[in-house]
Amino acid sequence: MARLIACDREDLETIAALLQDSLLRACDTHYDGRRRILSLLVNRYRWEVEAAERCHTILRIHGVTKAQRRSWPDSRAAVLELLHIEGDDDLIEMVFAGGTSVRCRVEAIDMLLEDVGDPWPASARPGHDDDEAPSDEEEGSGDDLVGTSPSGTGTPSSSASSS
User: Is the CB of residue 45 less than 8 Å from the CB of residue 2?
Assistant: First the structure.
């Protein structure tokens, strides 16, 4: 069971490698603007073991001053495949197949990856086409993930504004 903290670029690369080919349901994201934490619950392929296994993993990104999503699906049940994570000291971007992405402005690299629950056998080793990352657009493009939904759950509301 993995439990890792990232506080620099090298740590971020390790977490990115462990999360490659993770699956995320669009509804399994939570941005708490008050605490400045973006949390994702993913179905992670366990690259670090020989057996083909998956497990549920929580990724928390702390110190998020702004979070935006690009080409986010309308359906909360949509499943996204994480291709890679890129970042530097003040920007972390998660790129998914099909051009979807989440971009976070951060105070510093401060992430926690934690497996939760027991692993289960995967039906196959992940594979994907060489999807290209979305073209660099202006930083202001995309839907802002601001605050909490009207229910107070912190789930991004469908009425997120564009900047």
Answer: no
